[in-house]
Write a structure and sequence with these properties.
Elements (H helix, E strand, L loop, with lengths): L1 H15 L8 H4 L21 E15 L3 H4 E4 L2 E4 L1 H7 L3 E19 L2 E18 H9 L5 E3 L3 E18 L4 E18 L4 E6 L6 E6 L1 E6 L14 E13 L4 E15 L3 E6 L2 E6 L10 H13 L1 E4 L3 E4 L2 E10 L4 E11 L8 E9 L4 E9 L5 E11 L2 E7 L14 E12 L4 H21 L1
Antiparallel strand pairs: 1-4, 1-24, 2-3, 4-5, 5-7, 6-9, 7-8, 8-11, 8-12, 9-10, 10-15, 11-14, 12-13, 13-17, 13-18, 14-16, 18-19, 19-20, 20-21, 21-22, 22-23, 23-24
C-alpha cells in the first residue's frame, strides 16, 4: 500500500514539473473523475455523492511565438532585457496568450438523474498580437518610419460564482448541462478593435507625418489612482456554460460543450486613453536651444497634432468562449478512446483550432491516460498525460498537454499548460437501500432454512 502511495505521489509531482502544451485537452479527458472538469464540460457527472474542491486547484496556459531567451539575454553575470535580440527573433506577426484559473470553491452533489454544483473561480487572461514593426520601434525608438496596423491587446481579470445543473434523459442516454455564472470584473485593459498608428519621418527636413485610427485604450482597475482591487466589485456581468451529450450505444457517444459565453460591463474606476483620428497630421518640431523643457515641448506638440485625451466612459467586453466537441469509443469497460476538437474564440486575437486523440484507463478510483494533440497557433505534435487517483477520501489529479520539455530549459520554452488540484470525495449511504438489502438477505436466509 505504501509503495503505491509513494509511486503515485512521485508521478503526480513529475507531471507537474516544467511542462509545455497548448490547451486543456488532457484535462478534458479526465471526464467524470474530477469535479473541476465541469468548468469545461458541464455534462460530466461526479462519481461520488459529495465532491468538495479545495482552493488548491490551479490551471495555467501559455502560448507564445516568443521564447523567454529571445528577450532576456545574458550580460556578464547578469540578465538584461534586449529588445534588439527580440526584434531579430520576431516574426511578421507574433502572439502571446495566457490564462490562469484558480478554483476557489466547488461543491458537487450527485443526484439520481444528474448532479448539482456550486462554484467560485478566479480567472485572468491576456491576449496580445504584435507585429515586426512594434519590435522594431521597441529596439530602435522613433528614429525611422513605421506603421502599427496589426496590433491587438486584451487583458481581463475577473471572478465568477455560479450554479450548475446536469440532467440525464432517455434512460441516461441523453445528458444536458447548464451553468449560470455571476461575473465580477477585477481589472481590464484592451486596445480598441482596428486601432492603427503610423509615423512617416522625412529625412530631408525631419517633418513627422502621423496617422491614427481608433487609437483608444480602455482600462478599469489598472490606473495609478485605483483603489484596492475588489474580488467582487461594481463591474458586473453574466456568463453561462452549456453542454450536450448523447450515447448512441454501449460503445459510442458524442459530447459538445460551449463555455464562457458572456460579457462584463466595466463602469468602476474606468479610464479611456484616446488619440483622435488624424489623417496626415504634421509635426514641425521646435527650437531645442531656446526651449525651456524639451520633454514638455514634445508632449505639447504631439498633443496638438494627435489630440490626446482621457475620459471615463463605461464599456463592455466579452470574456471569450471555448468549444469542445468529442467522440468517445469505449473499447471495453476499462479502456476508453476519445477524439476531441477544441476552438478558443478569443475576442482579441485569432487562435487556430486544436485536435486530439486520447486514451484513458478507467478504474474504480483511478484513471490515467495519454493524449496526442496538434493544431493551435504553434502547431506541431504534442503528447500529454493525465492522472486522477483517490487515496481514501482524498483525491489528487494533474493533467498536462506536452511531455516533451520535462527536464528541459525553461528559457527555451514558449508554451506551457497544466492543471493540478486536490479534492475531498464522500460517498453517502442510502439508508433506504440498506434497509431493503437487509430485508432481502433475511428472506434468502429463511428460504435456505426451509429448503434444509
Amino acid at each position: 500500500m505504501k509503495k503505491t502511495i509513494y509511486s503515485t505521489i512521485l508521478l503526480f509531482f513529475i507531471l507537474m514539473n516544467n511542462v509545455k502544451a497548448q490547451d486543456y485537452l488532457s484535462f478534458y479527458n479526465l471526464g467524470d473523475y474530477v469535479i473541476q472538469t465541469q468548468n469545461i464540460s458541464p455534462i460530466y457527472l461526479p462519481k461520488y455523492k459529495v465532491n468538495f474542491g479545495t482552493p488548491l486547484n490551479i490551471g495555467f496556459n501559455l502560448n507564445s511565438g516568443i521564447k523567454l531567451n529571445d528577450i532576456l539575454v545574458e550580460s556578464g553575470n547578469n540578465i538584461k532585457i534586449d529588445f534588439n535580440n527580440l526584434n531579430a527573433s520576431a516574426a511578421d506577426a507574433n502572439v502571446v496568450a495566457t490564462d490562469i484559473v484558480a478554483n476557489i470553491f466547488m461543491l458537487g452533489f450527485k443526484t439520481k438523474k444528474g448532479s448539482l454544483t456550486l462554484f467560485a473561480n478566479a480567472k485572468s487572461n491576456l491576449a496580445w498580437e504584435f507585429s515586426k514593426d512594434f519590435t522594431t520601434v521597441a529596439a530602435n525608438g522613433f528614429g525611422e518610419s513605421f506603421s502599427l496596423t496589426a496590433e491587438k491587446l486584451g487583458f481581463t481579470s475577473y471572478s465568477e460564482i455560479g450554479i450548475g445543473v446536469t440532467r440525464t434523459f432517455l434512460d441516461d442516454k441523453l445528458s444536458i448541462g447548464l451553468r449560470l455564472k455571476s461575473l465580477s470584473g477585477i481589472a481590464h485593459s484592451s486596445l480598441e478593435d482596428g486601432a492603427q498608428f503610423s509615423l512617416d519621418i522625412n529625412p530631408a527636413n525631419f517633418l513627422w507625418t502621423l496617422n491614427t485610427t481608433n487609437a483608444t485604450v480602455n482600462t478599469s482597475g489598472v490606473s495609478d489612482t485605483a483603489d484596492i482591487i475588489a474580488f467582487f466589485g461594481k463591474n458586473s456581468g453574466f456568463g453561462m456554460d452549456i453542454g450536450l451529450g448523447y450515447e448512441i450505444n454501449e460503445k459510442f457517444s458524442f459530447e459538445l460543450s460551449i463555455n464562457d459565453l458572456g460579457s462584463i460591463n466595466w463602469k468602476d474606476n474606468v479610464t479611456n486613453y484616446n488619440l483622435q483620428d488624424v489623417s496626415n497630421g504634421v509635426y514641425n518640431g521646435f527650437d531645442f536651444q531656446n526651449s525651456g523643457n524639451v520633454q514638455d515641448e514634445i508632449e505639447n506638440a504631439l498633443n496638438n497634432v494627435l489630440g490626446a485625451t482621457e475620459s471615463q466612459e463605461s464599456f463592455k467586453s466579452k470574456i471569450g468562449s471555448r468549444t469542445f466537441f468529442s467522440a468517445k469509443y469505449k473499447m471495453s469497460e476499462k479502456n476508453v478512446f476519445r477524439a476531441t476538437y477544441f476552438y478558443n474564440k478569443n475576442p482579441y486575437i485569432s487562435i487556430k483550432p486544436s485536435y486530439a486523440l486520447g486514451y484513458n484507463r478507467e478504474l474504480n478510483k483511478t484513471t490515467y491516460g495519454l493524449v496526442a494533440s496538434t493544431g493551435g497557433n504553434n502547431g506541431g505534435f504534442r503528447l500529454g498525460a493525465n492522472l486522477a487517483v483517490q487515496l481514501g477520501f482524498l483525491q489528487l489529479y494533474t493533467a498536462l498537454d506536452d511531455l516533451s520539455s520535462i527536464g528541459g530549459k525553461v528559457q527555451d520554452s514558449n508554451t506551457a499548460n497544466f492543471r493540478f488540484g486536490m479534492n475531498f470525495l464522500f460517498k453517502q449511504l442510502n439508508k433506504s437501500k440498506v434497509k431493503i438489502d437487509n430485508e432481502e438477505q433475511k428472506k434468502e436466509e429463511l428460504l435456505e432454512e426451509n429448503n434444509e
